[in-house]
Amino acid sequence: xxxxxLVLWIPGYKVMDELICDEAFYKNSGDGITFSGGECxxxxxFLKEILVQCREKEIHCTVDTAGFVDWENFETVSGLxxxxxxxxxxxxxxxxxxxxxxxxxRILENLKxxxxxxxxxxxxxxxxxxxxxxxxxxxxxxxFLSELGSCYPVxxxxxxxxxxxxxxGLWKDSKVFFRDQPGMS
Length: 185
What we know:
By secondary structure, this protein is of the alpha/beta class. Helices cover 40% and strands 18% of the residues.
């Protein structure tokens, strides 16, 4: 392990040493490991190193992704991921750019490619007032998903601002756009 600034670099085998401590739980419960982030797919080579070891141990692996990475990152881990939890926020590219800072084109294209490759996917939609909660927004998402050619489970997730404290802890400005969500206090 080496330190670089505030970041601690840990080799894949050390991560696997930690993960393997719960191997009996994974096997007895039928559960496994979920890789998330940030965006774990941005570290696809490192992720692949761990996924290969998990595959050897027959541990189920889930990747939680927003899909905003180069397709090559998905190719890097191809055949090693049992399930993708794929975030889909908006079909409206203008709104997506306005509130996330990036286009949704790469995200949608990567989802199409994963579907064509027959990957196991659960679509996760954070439902956010005044962003994607209208009948029109949900209809557009449903229309897109129906064109994928496979029927995927969809999870509608209530919006929360739990990351705001993390940003404050990192001395960064929080870019929370939706402060007045129903049910939030």
